[in-house]
What we know:
Elements: H1 5-8, H2 11-36, H3 43-68, H4 73-102, H5 111-164, H6 169-184, H7 188-207, E1 213-215, H8 216-234, E2 238-244, E3 252-254, H9 259-270, E4 277-286, E5 289-296, H10 301-304, H11 313-326, E6 331-336, E7 341-348
Parallel strand pairs: 2-4
Antiparallel strand pairs: 1-3, 4-5, 5-7, 6-7
Helix pairs in contact: 2-3, 3-4, 3-5, 4-5, 5-11, 6-7, 7-8, 8-9, 9-11
Amino acid sequence: xxxxxxxxxxxxxxxxxxxxxxxxxxxxxxxxxxxxxxxxxxxxxxxxxxxxxxxxxxxxxxxxxxxxxxxxxxxxxxxxxxxxxxxxxxxxxxxxxxxxxxxxxxxxxxxxxxxxxxxxxxxxxxxxxxxxxxxxxxxxxxxxxxxxxxxxxxxxxxxxxxxxxxxxxxxxxxxxxxxxxxxxxxxxxxxxxxxxxxxxxxxxxxxxxxxxxxxxxxxxxxxxxxxxxxxxxxxxxxxxxxxxxxxxxxxxxxxxxxxxxxxxxxxxxxxxxxxxxxxxxxxxxxxxxxxxxxxxxxxxxxxxxxxxxxxxxxxxxxxxxxxxxxxxxxxxxxxxxxxxxxxxxxxxxxxxxx
Length: 354
């Protein structure tokens, strides 16, 4: 099938390949039949003439069928039957004339005999027509299927880009407010570091293709840019812990997959508490799956699901991204740690090809 694909995508090449091959096959089978039954030497000329005339007449059928293709099925069927009979009749007249040349002593066939013999030639043209319309209908279905797939792919890409770019503006606002506070308190050095870290993180988010996957190592490096900025805001109140196995670092994940989950933990576990909070990021491989987890020691599911509070947007965003990317081949679970919230992800294990 792989060798057939270039022809399928080039209609003209496909037609001529099938057309020439079909009529050559017809001539060959007729000649072999004559050879087996030891028919006259002149029969080769009759066979050649029948194949050439069929080749040319069916070529004309192609142009006629192009005009009929957009008509109703009834018009197509009637038109095909009429055309096949007329061309078969013309071919039979030519073949019978050739027979008279090969065998001058052969009696001239009656008109009724010619019309009767036309049915065998018509069957040949009908087979050609059935193949033509069959291939054309198949191509039409393939084009519709490919158009549907392209439309679905474009819609999926648009949805992923929308979800990927939905970074919580509160993070940016809070960081800018923190920078403003640092400047007012004359902590210019810390404010400058915060601006640098913020610009590096935002540059990363803009440079990354939303459709491209990155290694977990790259994702953690990006999260460190984000968490360093938050660390400047919260200081010792923000405690971080990593538990990532080495094989998991080379696995591919959607870019900025962890950012909404970590931001959710910062917002509901660290920010409201005077003592701050701890965030633990886990990663490991289990068979054909990559397992990730983000856990905190905050108030847990209650804070993340309170109606009307706008909480859980990052979780919903991540869940939708994974559903679009992996359909039913992923796992997304939120668990109440009591205290705290634990979010577990299971993704198909993918690695970069060397």
